[in-house]
């Protein structure tokens, strides 16, 4: 089944709409053809995919890597899973389904064109794309520090250990409990266990609190460039998802500026909530002061160095 042969929303259109529909699918196909490019414009995909960029892009790259046939994934249940993942994203300025589609696309590029491609197994490709797809599931636009300070349920449930990332992982994985969305049900148990471990290790690595530790271990590993066992490679995969997560730093300038402005607005929204709760406003989150767009060049330099 080709995803592009359906409308993104699953609505069947009448004959009168055939020409429009055909033009829309052509636009979507042209856009997806560019999904192998580092400087992919995810906002173009958002428009062409009728507001369903996450499920359309993830399905496309799963097909592209032949993961559905190779792992005998259940196509209908995968579609149901992806729909539920996309529906679980709030319309935050930054942490929304379009950002996640962007991260999936960046992960696809890293795994198929980056230096890591020589070392990764097929299971690691599947895990990398799945981790990217769920890595911000149900994000509410607040950072971990805020969740911990306010004793939010997500902080309590995770004992203050990466409250956001722990929630994204656990609640997305629970989707698989629904038999209609359990697309890996035919996968041998040992493979399911391996997949889950890889996805957990990658999504938890997106917590910026782990940034310095991961980068430092990765720098050491990169001096020994042989794929010998999983423990070393997982660090490479953690580095990959972290790079994909800030992939807009190497996007076209106008795309990068748009994401930076959205990040700034989301941070200011958290600052508004902090002010309303009489909390100290977090760094860069006060809309009455210069925001992240003034600091982004510094962030880019520190991330890329
Ligand atoms: Zn993210």
Write a structural description.
- The structure is a single chain.
- The chain is mostly helical and 305 residues long.
- It has one domain (3-251): 3'5'-cyclic nucleotide phosphodiesterase, catalytic domain (Catalytic domain of cyclic nucleotide phosphodiesterase 4b2b, Orthogonal Bundle).
- Helices cover 61% and strands 0% of the residues.
- The protein has 15 helices and no strands.
- The protein has helices at 18-33, 42-48, 53-64, 67-70, 75-87, 97-113, 122-134, 144-149, 153-157, 163-174, 189-204, 211-221, 230-245, 253-276, 292-304.
- It is globular and about 55 Å long.
- The N and C termini lie far apart (43 Å).
- Mean pLDDT is 89; it is low at 1-11 and 300-305.
- Bound molecules: zinc ion.
- Zinc ion binds at residues 99, 103, 135-136, 245.
- This is PDEase domain-containing protein.
- Residues 1-305 form the PDEase domain.
- AMP binds at residues 95-99, 136, 245, 296.
- The active site is at 95 (proton donor).
- Keywords: Hydrolase, Metal-binding.
Query: Total number of β-strand segments?
Result: 0
Q: What does the largest sheet look like?
A: none
Share of residues in strands? under 5%
CATH architecture: Orthogonal Bundle
Average pLDDT works out at 89
CATH class: Mainly Alpha
CATH topology: Catalytic domain of cyclic nucleotide phosphodiesterase 4b2b
Keywords: Hydrolase, Metal-binding
GO biological process, one term: signal transduction
Binding site for AMP: 95-99, 136, 245, 296
Binding site for Zn(2+) 2: 136
């Amino acid at each position: 089944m080709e995803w592009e042969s359906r409308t993104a929303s699953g609505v069947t259109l009448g004959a009168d709409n055939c020409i429009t529909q055909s033009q829309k699918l052509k636009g979507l196909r042209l856009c997806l053809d560019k999904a192998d490019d580092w400087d992919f414009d995810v906002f173009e995909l958002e428009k062409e995919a009728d507001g369903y960029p996450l499920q359309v892009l993830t399905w496309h790259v799963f097909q592209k890597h032949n993961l559905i046939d190779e792992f005998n994934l259940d196509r209908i249940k995968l579609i149901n899973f992806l729909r539920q993942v996309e529906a679980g994203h709030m319309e935050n300025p930054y942490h929304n389904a379009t950002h996640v589609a962007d991260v999936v696309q960046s992960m696809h590029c890293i795994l198929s064109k980056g230096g890591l491609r020589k070392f990764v197994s097929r299971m690691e490709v599947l895990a990398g794309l799945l981790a990217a797809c769920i890595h911000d599931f149900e994000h509410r636009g607040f950072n971990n520090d805020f969740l911990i300070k306010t004793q939010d349920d997500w902080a309590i449930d995770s004992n203050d250990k990466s409250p956001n990332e722990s929630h994204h992982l656990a609640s997305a994985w629970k989707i698989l409990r629904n038999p209609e969305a359990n697309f890996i049900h035919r996968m041998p148990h040992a493979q399911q266990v391996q997949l889950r471990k890889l996805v957990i290790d990658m999504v938890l690595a997106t917590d910026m609190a782990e940034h310095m530790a991961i980068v430092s271990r990765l720098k050491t590993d990169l001096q020994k460039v042989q794929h010998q066992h999983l423990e070393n490679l997982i660090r490479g995969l953690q580095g990959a998802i972290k790079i994909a997560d800030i992939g807009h730093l190497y996007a076209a300038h106008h795309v990068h500026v748009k994401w930076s402005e959205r990040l700034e607005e989301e941070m200011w929204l958290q600052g508004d909530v902090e002010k309303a709760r009489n909390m100290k406003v977090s760094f860069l989150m006060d809309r009455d002061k210069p925001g992240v767009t003034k600091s982004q060049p510094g962030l880019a330099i520190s991330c890329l160095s």
